[in-house]
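Reopening this ticket.

The earlier resolution said the output was attached, but the attachment link was broken on my side. Pasting everything inline this time so it's all in one place.
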Amino acid sequence: MNLNRRLFIKSGLGAGVCAMTQGRVSAVSRKTTIAQLDKAAAAPILKVASIKTPVKIASIELLRNRRDFFVRTTSTDGAVGVAVTNGRAAYLHTILQQLVIPYFVGGDTRNLESLIDGVYVYRSNYKLSGLALWCCVAWVEFSILDLLGKVTNKPVGELLGGVIRRQIPIYVASGNRHTTPQQEVDILTKHIERTGAGAIKFKVGGRMSNNADSMSGRSEGLIRIVRKALGDEVKIYADANGSYDCRKAVEIGKLMQDSNIDMFEEPCPFDHLEQTKCVADALSIPIAGGEQETSLRRFRWMVHNNAVQVVQPDLHYNGGFIRAIRVARMAAEAGMTVIPHMSGDGVGYVDVLHFASCTPNIGDFHEYKGGLDKTGPWYDPPLRLKNGAINVPTAPGLGITNVDDILRNAKPV
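Inline output:
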């Protein structure tokens, strides 16, 4: 296992080890060309051929009901789509209202893919490219897809290629860095007992901390005991949030390999792609990354150079379902798995449910941070967590059925 990762896989031994390692995300990927990846990403996505006449956008509004923000799109013939934002709308609303919404108003929703591309250059938005811009685009896209779903009487997954799964297994992430190794294992055990989740994720390092741990020896201690404590049936992921340089990440990653950890997420700072590739080349454990990424070209670089083996676009940060599907298709071309990052409070987990419902190369488990008690009843059928999985909404669009009740006290921002 000390062989260079590429030589290990090319030798043919790597594929056998990865195939035999039960419960592990495969680290084997196919060599691709840039042209192949571009072709995969450029293929049409939306299935709206049944809509024979234009569905033009008359208005797009940002509404607020206490802590919740909503984007509501209305067509010229009265169709309405509503989407829930993440909490960043509280301070990104100016970009949304001045630089994103005006571009979409008057557009034909059937041309959503080209509208998503066009807003990038509208009023020089490319100069603002990053999470702040693409979150705003994502919220508008979500609301338009909800509208199109209601026009066609189809859930979002059918519009985006076709629903292929109705139940999405979850993993639960603790998010803790202040616990001792034994305290963290106890918390993870309770998460599994409470939810029935088949996978968990814990934090290592100190978060963008230049190799410093949150507590001396915490990460190494936790890695050494977690598998024995939780057993072999649970998938275990570890997330560094960019804590390490390549040298330290490899050191930590080898401990993870010895402890049969299933995935090492964001070992190096998210924008240091070469360091991340350095880690991937040195280890056999699958490396995950991409949650902060907003450039399809940088995603392409990551896939083409095998810098990660699990690709993690965030549906909000990266600009919505369409752009995330483009990333997923590039990953599929290279034989890679996609496990989208789940951002935001509110109904971010439902966005992931829809994406997972229609993405062929989706991972086995997806993050759930809670919220079913409040938001589960909004959907048809109501969302339930049972045996470690949540059902996908089947109602048209995003699946919210009591929109009028939810927006009764909402006010324009």
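Reporter confirms the inline version is readable. The radius of gyration is 21 Å. The first strand starts at residue 57 and ends at 65.
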